[in-house]
Structure formats: structure tokens, C-alpha cells
Design a protein that fits this description.
Elements (H helix, E strand, L loop, with lengths): L4 H16 L3 E6 L5 E6 L7 H8 L3 H8 L5 H7 L3 H15 L20
Antiparallel strand pairs: 1-2
Helix pairs in contact: 2-3
Length: 116
């Protein structure tokens, strides 16, 4: 079934957004010890869909959604270990000025409650 006009326009908008997107560059270590720099969307701009993919264990979808389109093949060829992937995500987070695992939301212990 051919794409609709709206689908074509949405795809063009995504391409334009990707072209204008700033990336951070971080090293990614392959399973064989080879390390290459790849460009990734800053952690604060990761889409919810890519986080869901990561949470469900789909690292390929996470990386495809967040790496620069020209760098996804590098990721595939490097075939990083989980340690290498984890270090990469931590490096991107640090370079993005984000802190993984820390929510900026209000904590329960900080709320005032009256006790009798």
C-alpha cells in the first residue's frame, strides 16, 4: 500500500529534525576491543519509544533511534558487549549533562505531612 501524503510529510519532517539534531560523540567499544567514536542524540532528547525499546531489551531499536543514521552500521559491526554498551550510555549521559537514574521529580520524603 503506497504511503499517504501525511505519512510522506511526517517522514520528511523526521528527516529534517534528524538533520538539525545536535549529537554528542562518545566512544563505543566493540566485542573485540576495537573502539570507534559514534554520534548519539543527547540523553535528554531520547524519545520515550526508544527508552521503551531499551527497557524491553531491544538495544538495536534503541541505538537505531538515537545514533546518527550514518553511525548505526558502525554499532552493528562493533557488536558491543553489555559492558561496552553500558559504558557508552553512561558516557553519552555524562557528555549530555544528564544524570542517569536520577529523577528530577519531587521525592516523597520531602513532602510535609502532619502527624498526630
Amino acid at each position: 500500500m503506497p504511503a499517504t501524503k501525511d505519512q510522506i510529510e511526517a517522514a520528511r519532517a523526521q528527516e529534517t529534525e534528524a538533520d538539525e539534531q545536535e549529537y554528542v560523540t562518545a566512544p563505543l567499544a566493540g566485542h573485540d576491543g576495537v573502539t570507534k567514536d559514534v554520534r548519539c542524540v543527547p540523553a535528554g532528547y531520547w524519545r520515550a519509544s526508544t527508552i521503551r525499546a531499551l527497557n524491553s531489551g531491544n538495544i538495536d531499536a534503541f541505538m537505531e533511534g538515537n545514533l546518527h543514521p550514518d553511525d548505526f552500521e558502525i554499532f552493528e559491526n562493533l557488536d558491543p558487549t553489555m559492558d561496552g554498551f553500558g559504558k557508552f550510555v553512561a558516557d553519552v549521559s555524562r557528555l549530555s549533562g544528564e544524570s542517569l537514574g536520577k529523577s528530577s521529580g519531587r521525592s516523597r520524603s520531602g513532602s510535609a505531612t502532619r502527624r498526630n
